[in-house]
């Protein structure tokens, strides 16, 4: 309980970009858990702020998001804790605020927890690395073709969402309210930003209800939750 009190007193500085899928994951989690003292810092990538020495001192990858947690020490000073990967940030928040909208099933539900992580990996490892703007633009440079770039990106979107849908269909999640069971999990937190990013590439998941009915059902439920609806609006 004392650790939670200390966490509630801390300040959470999130360096993000509005349309960044990775940053969206963290913003959704912060909102779901109603984490107090959140300060947003927009990183202007157009002005190349993300590759300045000052920002790289926080995030050596020169990417978003970056979470800086500032806590008052017992001696009266301030300590800082920095995390730079969205999935690490999500799990950190879930461990620091375990009773505020927990994003993993209880530790006794081992298989369900594994399923959540499986779906998270589909999004963060099988889809996102191939469709994020930085990598997609590199494909365009190499091939000198917008058509090849779009074909490359959409291939991984279709294959990734197909896999996500099939895993839900084959598991106990079939017919459930959200990706895994009746409660929001990390899988949902990662799914929504990926659906929004897909739309930027011309793949509107909502128009493929016949292909991804379970995903569409989940999205329909999530958009009614303020933390998700705010990002989807």
Automatic annotation (TrEMBL):
Stored Pfam families: GST_N_2 (PF13409)
Domain GST N-terminal: 10-101
GO biological process: glutathione metabolic process; L-phenylalanine catabolic process
Sample GO molecular function, one term: glutathione transferase activity
Entry-linked InterPro entries: Glutathione-S-Trfase_C-like, Glutathione-S-Trfase_C_sf, Glutathione_S-Trfase, Glutathione_S-Trfase_N, Thioredoxin-like_sf
Taxonomic superkingdom: Eukaryota
Gene3D superfamilies: 1.20.1050.10, Glutaredoxin
Ranges of residues in domain GST C-terminal: 109-233
Name listed for the protein in its UniProt record: Thioredoxin-like protein
Provenance organism: Clathrospora elynae
């Amino acid at each position: 309980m004392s650790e939670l009190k200390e966490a509630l007193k801390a300040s959470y500085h999130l360096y993000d970009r509005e349309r960044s899928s990775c940053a969206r994951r963290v913003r959704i989690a912060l909102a779901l858990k109603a984490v107090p003292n959140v300060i947003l810092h927009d990183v202007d990538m157009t002005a190349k702020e993300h590759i300045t020495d000052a920002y790289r001192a926080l995030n050596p990858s020169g990417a978003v998001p970056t979470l800086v947690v500032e806590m008052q020490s017992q001696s009266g000073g301030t300590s800082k804790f920095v995390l730079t990967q969205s999935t690490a940030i999500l799990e950190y928040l879930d461990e620091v605020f375990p009773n505020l909208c927990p994003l993993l099933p209880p530790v006794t539900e081992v298989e369900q927890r594994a399923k959540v992580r499986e779906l998270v990996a589909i999004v963060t490892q099988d889809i996102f690395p191939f469709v994020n703007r930085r990598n997609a633009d590199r494909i365009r440079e190499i091939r000198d073709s917008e058509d090849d770039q779009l074909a490359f990106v959409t291939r991984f979107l279709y294959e990734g969402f197909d896999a996500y849908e099939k895993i839900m269909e084959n598991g106990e999640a079939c017919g459930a309210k959200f990706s895994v069971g009746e409660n929001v999990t990390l899988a949902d937190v990662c799914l929504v930003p990926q659906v929004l990013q897909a739309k930027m590439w011309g793949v509107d998941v909502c128009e493929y209800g016949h292909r991804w009915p379970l995903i569409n059902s989940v999205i329909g439920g999530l958009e009614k939750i303020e933390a998700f609806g705010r990002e989807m609006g």
